[in-house]
Design goal:
Ribosomal Protein S5, domain 2, binds ligand DP6, globular, alpha+beta, Alpha-Beta Plaits, eight-stranded mixed beta sheet
């Protein structure tokens, strides 16, 4: 029996990953850049054992469906072959999220699973190798290997992974406020949404051209510690990504009326002189990037429009961490 445990934090892309050039290998159409956050994380333990007859996947203590387990099994198959381990596994994954607002993240989940396997099977992977491995579970997970800013470079199967973006710890001056918008609208998963967009959106070529330019702009903003430039390109990039969905066939959007209200609110607060900028992912929640020194004033302003339960404050989080095991179970020997 081999056991390992790890924790990974979620990340939010400031320059979005939107579209795959290879679905099986999870190779992206464009580079992306993210900030890892401390507010949401996943802790995962994995046990590989001789007497398991199949993989079993528990999330927050609840055994997951055959379909969900199958996805995890496919990821584990790759790891089993890489680590030369034939054993089935039991996975116990816990999501630490402040409220049950649909914020469970595949980024932190798959990064934590990659880390737990690395521990259990004593794979001794470098951060780049861990990032490459996590990518094959969920693209955005490759960025959660790092704290602070990370850039996922497109690359090929071997060279597609994220790297730390040097920032002189500037991320510690930044905050992100989540505005949780919980509505009942049917969701298009990011996986399906990006596929439909790549295949059908007449705006997709424009997205690729713009994303490449936005990446250059954001890296300069980080190098210069220029918050206005960082925020402006973050917001503009999110709007462009969401624009592509409107030109897909059939068209779709992740925006709800509440999302639009939140975006308006952020613009309004900014016009009042408090620098803040929004971004959005494959769902209705709105995330507000600001400087730590302004976070309380911005929270106060947002509280006039949203309930305290809807607002979650996050700061920069750390990278993937191996965790000690509760009892002394051996790792696989190298
Ligand atoms: C909008 O990483 O969840 O959040 O690779 O198919 O698992 P898969 O997709 P996923 O997509 C994230 C999309 C996004 C933007 C981003 O995080 O870069």
């Amino acid at each position: 029996m081999y056991k390992g445990k790890a924790r990974a934090y979620t990340n939010i892309a400031l320059i979005k990953y939107w579209g795959k050039k290879d679905e099986a290998l999870i190779l992206p159409m464009n580079n992306s850049l993210s900030l890892t956050l401390d507010a949401f994380y996943t802790e995962t333990s994995i046990t590989f054992a001789e007497d398991f007859a199949e993989d079993r996947f528990f999330l927050d203590g609840i055994e997951q469906s055959a379909a969900a387990t199958k996805k995890i099994s496919a990821f584990l198959d790759m790891i089993r072959s890489e680590a030369d381990c034939p054993l089935y596994a039991s996975i116990d994954s816990r999501n630490f999220v402040p409220t049950a607002a649909g914020l469970a993240s595949s980024a932190s989940g798959l990064a934590a699973l990659a880390g737990a396997c690395n521990e259990a099977l004593n794979m001794q992977l470098s951060v780049e190798e861990l990032s490459r491995l996590a990518r094959k579970g969920s693209g955005s997970a490759c960025r959660s290997i790092y704290g602070g800013f990370a850039e996922w470079q497109q690359g090929t199967d071997d060279t597609s992974y994220a790297l730390q973006v040097a920032s002189d710890d500037w991320e510690n001056d930044l905050s992100m406020i989540f505005i949780l918008i919980n509505d009942q609208e049917k969701e298009v998963s990011s996986r399906d949404g990006m596929r439909r967009t790549v295949e059908t959106s007449s705006f997709y070529d424009g997205w690729l051209t713009a994303a490449a330019k936005d990446l250059v702009t954001i890296k300069q903003a980080i190098a210069d510690k220029d918050f206005a430039a960082l925020g402006a390109v973050t917001e503009a990039n999110a709007l462009k990504m969401h624009g592509t969905t409107l030109a897909a066939q059939p068209p779709f959007t992740y925006w709800s009326p509440e999302s639009l209200r939140a975006m308006d609110c952020v613009r309004h607060i900014r016009q009042q002189g408090l620098p803040c900028y929004f971004t959005m992912d494959a769902g209705p929640n709105v995330k507000v990037l600001c400087q730590k020194r302004d976070e309380q004033a911005i929270l106060d302003a947002l509280q006039a429009n949203f309930t305290p339960e809807q607002l979650v404050l996050a700061h920069a989080g750390s990278g993937l961490t191996a965790l000690p095991l509760e009892n002394d179970v051996p790792k696989m020997s190298k």
